[in-house]
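Handout, section 3.2

Students often ask what a structure token actually looks like in practice. Rather than define it abstractly, here is a full record for Fatty-acid amide hydrolase 1. The first block is the sequence as you would receive it.
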Amino acid sequence: KLISNCLCLFPFQQTLAVNQKLNCCTEILLESLDQLTTVGSNKDGLLYGVPVSVKENITFKNHDCSCGVVINLDQPAEKDSVLVQVLKKQGAIPFVRTNLPQALLNYDCSNPIYGQTVNPHNPQKTSGGSSGGEGALIGGGGSLLGIGTDIGGSIRIPASFCGICGFKPTAGRLSLQGLRPIYRGQKSVPSSPGPMARDVDSLALCMQALLCDHMFSLDPTVPPLPFNMEIYRSSRPLRIGYLESDGYTHPSPSMARGVREVKALLEQAGHTFSVSEQTVFSCANDLFHFREGGPVDPCLDILEILHLCLNRFFVTFPCARNCIQTFCFILRSVPELWKQHAAVEDYIQETIAHWRSCNIDVLLCPVIGPAYNFLYCGKLSTAVSYTILYNLLTFPAGVVTVSTVTTKDEEELKHYKGCYQDMWDKLFKEAVSGGEGLPVAVQCVALPWQDELCLRFMKEVEQLVKESKK
């Protein structure tokens, strides 16, 4: 037992050291030491003995789940979330909870309770969000595996900013019971919990562990679909769609280069490509609604520019108005709600039909990055176009780090014009400036319920990039 306790204290020491630099944790779960007395009963678990960090909005018995909102303090949860119960059943040891933005309404990572989390590669940059505490902790070497949540890119953006891997499963593949939402009942753009780690194999192992009979028993609303290892380990050539820009937010030079370089590596490996033009873009902006009773983080104080942001968005993508109305809770009647849900369902089917007409298995596309300077995330809410789209579509999507920002990338950024050469493109250029040495990532996407194929694609990208650097 003494040896076991010493081994368990090591991740605590690592985490505390990283947290001192990055401010990425909200609390250490000291009861994880007590778990050592019972973890032996789960020796057959796929995650036996693995310390796991967990985002603060995922409930733990007897702990607050504040979501960075002051009025949510002193309301301890009555039981563990389903995901935490399954992690423990699989032998994992949840040992720390991690930071997030106030009310999960930003892709920065700051709130009035726990403060600002910074980037592990440059403390003058944000870690991203809303799973920014996880991104920073794992990217800084303080955790091997973490659980985040994603409703607009909240796993994928911090994975991109912090140089790790992150995976958003198909909506509904993992249980949501015990995840504290800010708005219950919002169905148009569903949240998805998912793993974050330093490599794709760890993501796949976590998914395999979570997709077990114990989760299906605890939450019968989750489809009982175990992880298909055969698909994940498959080596057949893939038919890959390719998207370098969505025509709305042009990627930074480094992120565009990352996509091009990965495309070349995949082609050399025998995979085939089809240029995938984005169909009618129809995504949703961040929720701009704050609960009363506490301070508002300055990162979120941007209502004065929201109407300008939406005006540009609607001019470019008029079909987006309906979906945004649903997402922003401004519907006035039940029939209107049904109409908006039907519009989302139609768009999903149109996109799937487009994929099939292109005869593609998966999609390679950019993700937001490199990491922003502080206070720009709230000003650039529409820059989540590359990530929030796949929440709306419910497609599984993941991020793999493939490179770093070079001096040449920074030089090219000086000439960045964007898609419209307007104030938003100018803000984006300012946000990503000074990024030399920061991680560069790409995004991998698959059709609904093809999570294993998406992870297999991510693994292929990871391996090819690793081999190219030898």
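Discussion prompt for tutorial groups: The chain has 16 helices and 13 strands. How would you have guessed this from the sequence alone?
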